[in-house]
Specification:
Layout lengths: L6 H32 L7 H16 L16 H9 L2 H26 L2 H12 L2 H8 L4 H21 L2 H17 L2 H17 L5 H28 L12 H19 L6 H4 L2 H15 L40 H22 L9 H7 L4 H10 L7 H27 L25
Length: about 450
Amino acid sequence: MFTAPFPARAARRQSRPLIGWLVAVGVLVQLALFSYTTASGLAGTSDSRLYLHAAQTLRATGQLLQPDGTPYRYWPPLYPLLLAAVGSLAGVRLLHGAALLGSLLLWSWLGRQLLPRRRALLLPLLLALGTPGLLVGKFVWAECVFIMLVAAYLAALLQWLRTARGEWAALATAAGVLLPLQRTLGLFLLAGVGVALLLGAWRHLAARGHWLLLLHLLLSGLSGLIWQTYALLVVAAPSRYHPPRGWGQLLSSAADYGFVLGRWLVPLPASARAGLPDALWAAALLGLFAVLWPRWRSRRPVGALALPGPPSPHDAVAANTAFPVPPGLGFGPPLMRKVLWAATVALVALVAGLTVFAQSAAGVHDAERYASVLYGPVVLLVLAAWPARAPRWLGAGLLGLWLLGLAFRTGHVALDLRRVPPLAAASLPGPEPHGQGIRAAEQ
């Protein structure tokens, strides 16, 4: 037993008051921005009309229905169920605000676990100044709750990988089951998580670990597959797909996501998307993914089968008896960073590929909305990939410019969102299709 704290542990204890203050500042900034943009009320689009109508029919008849009277089918059912539960646009506003606040707290906690101490201090401010949550929070869309569910899933998954305790496995699986019932994109994220876990952990697991991991992945994705089967086969909804539009559409979609993710890191005007060829934006997306690829930070033996020794400052993990690992590999921060990377790449790749066969998710506006769930992972991966040996003055300057650019764009977007016409206070089922547009994403 050690009678004195390790220097790393002492440093972490000293940073706790500071991280607490920074999280509090981030919470206040986010709540102020959200309150300002939604003070006039939430706005809606044609998607919102379907959500609100399904919620209204559920409250009135006990069934989720489309405006034409047929069963609700185009999107997963969890969000209309939540709308029916809250019962009013004021309740939806509280739901969105609570979900965004919960996601900020969860990602701040994940940053404490996955990042070096000083970089983790910046994460709450970067999250609070992000425009994706601000944008989706203004509209009656499913993204706010989806963003929080993803953060909750990843936090529970990290705890399960580190401790192998049954309660964390149950929480991770429960959150995983809900993801594709909130947004179909949950299936894409789970696909990336599954690939990362199978490639990064499978050969190091005992037989019991194999069964637990497979059961978790199966149960998590099964709910989404059941809903898609119901919508396509049981309801026999008209197909929303068409013959493929070719590689040109895939290149254009990759360019859209390259532009959207790029402007989270670098101040870019809306005109920059059309100012450069699609091939350059697609190449920028691939380059960003290459830079963000997390490498193992340490080869120190960890885990239940490793030799005992003092913990590492950043990658120390609890003794793991259900998931025993060999020396040199730990089921903690290193693997979790790769899980975040794989989930991000899987979502972008699969959504971009889907635009070849369907109109949904095509264009910068849809890319901004669909990628909103990736803001937390991307910012965390950027901080994780930050060069440790860079001069401190250079790093501080670049981070200051990053924060300044985010603050400027967030303020600009908040002003535009404030001017978007709101839904009427009692508007169920909401506006007619295409009755309101989204202009804030263009700024």
